[in-house]
Specification:
The protein is an alpha/beta fold. The chain folds into two domains: about 120 residues, Response regulator (Rossmann fold, 3-Layer(aba) Sandwich); about 110 residues, OB fold (Dihydrolipoamide Acetyltransferase, E2P) (Beta Barrel), CATH 2.40.50. About 25% of the residues lie in helices and about 35% in strands. The chain is built from seven helices and 16 strands. It has a five-stranded parallel sheet. The protein has a five-stranded antiparallel sheet with strand order 11-10-9-13-12. The relative contact order is 0.09.
């Protein structure tokens, strides 16, 4: 990932630059002590991450952040904790309070990597008419026959696909999964999507799919009942 640092304090720039050297997938391409100069650079060259000080002369970090391409990840750095709430009004990946430790910086790096993986579309249809999906799971990509999917379960940042007795993990949200699945897949609870054609039976509180008893969420019950008519 290409990175720039924008901070009016030379020592702050040096510290972040030294930390970045520990992470091979991050390339520091430029540093700036002036927000206007950084904006001029960003208008001509795209980067993946901006480490951005908030309190700077001429153009504050918050003002600059609103002019940066939304696809670019922003990590705010500041010595003033009172800026934290305002910074979260911007599409920011993280907020680092100075002095920044390497341990805390490493957590930010993990967030940036996770965000990039999430944006790289973990689930892709081969075509609109395809009967298979490609599920990206870590370094592997699994080709899955849609009709073999029994149900999906969300757990934290991960989605688990239960496919003919196998369990495949992907990093995605409920909304992202539903976008790629055909209409016969319905959400029946905040953490579950089921293949309607695989439902064996339905009770007042559960559906039975592939020998599993899956709870029905109250807000999804009417959708399920309409589908059963």
């Amino acid at each position: 990932m290409k990175v720039i640092i924008v901070d009016d304090e030379p020592k702050a720039i040096e510290l972040i630059a030294s930390y970045l050297k520990h992470f091979a997938s991050f390339e520091l391409v430029a540093t700036f002590r002036n927000g206007l100069k950084a904006l001029e650079f960003l208008n001509t060259i795209a980067v993946d991450v901006v480490f951005l000080d908030i309190n700077m002369p001429h153009l504050s970090g918050l003002s600059l952040s609103k002019m940066i391409d939304p696809k670019t990840s922003i990590v705010f750095t500041t010595a003033y904790s009172e800026h934290a709430l305002e910074s979260y009004d911007v599409n920011t990946t993280d907020y680092l309070l100075k002095p920044i430790s390497l341990e805390r910086f490493s957590k930010t790096i993990t967030k940036l990597i996770d965000k990039q993986e999430q944006q790289s579309s973990p689930l892709i249809n081969t075509s609109e008419a395809s009967d298979t999906l490609f599920v990206k799971s870590g370094l592997e990509t699994h080709q899955v026959k849609i009709s073999d999917i029994d149900y999906l379960q969300k757990d934290g940042n991960y989605m688990y696909y239960f496919v003919s007795g196998k369990k495949i993990m992907a990093r995605q949200s409920i909304a992202e999964a539903l976008e790629t699945l055909p209409e016969n897949f319905i959400q029946i609870q905040k953490s579950y999507i089921v293949n309607f054609s695989k439902i064996g039976s339905v009770s007042t509180a559960y559906v039975h799919v592939a020998n599993e008893q899956i709870p029905i969420g109250s807000q999804y019950k009417s959708l399920l009942l309409d589908k059963l008519k």
